[in-house]
# Entry
Amino acid sequence: MKPLLKPALSGALICCLFSSCLKYAKPDVGPVTFNSPGMAFDFNKVNNERFDGCTYYQVPSNGPATHFRINGYSSSTGHTLRIDIFDVNKAFKVGDTFSITTSADTTKNNMSYNYNPVNGQVFGSSLASPKGDLTITEATSDHIKGTFTAWLYDVTDLRGIYVIYDIENGTFYAKYDDPSKK
# Structure
């Protein structure tokens, strides 16, 4: 019986190692190239989200800053990701970059995220622990395309201690949507 113990334990160990590697394999999602409005991203190294719609528009503002909002959404799950960008020169250009900063000053190239994966739950960027970038890769009069990354926290985590969503390989194609024409 003892001679069978070593091969059996070795086999069990190999099976455990193999299955643990499979469990944490990164999905083959991003970056995704879109030819129509949409958004996709990987999160927490093992999951991904893909939205079948994405729009952007200028948010009315009384202050000096220009405020644009990019909305990604899934018609099948109801999940949404909102990206707010401040201090844009009214027109996006290829190569424009925006980052989350430690300041709430909306007169600088600043941005924020809000992700709603389940109705009622909201996760967002943190001024206390900012991490997030967005780059415009294509810009026309009716749409923009770009890439993004972010760390998102529960909105009650004001100090930004516990990262809930580590977003990587984010891509989007957002069609311009003028709310004033509705």
Remarks:
- DSSP finds one helix and eleven strands in the chain.
- Residues 8-27 have pLDDT under 50 and may be disordered.
- The helical segments are 2-23.
- The longest strand covers residues 143-154.
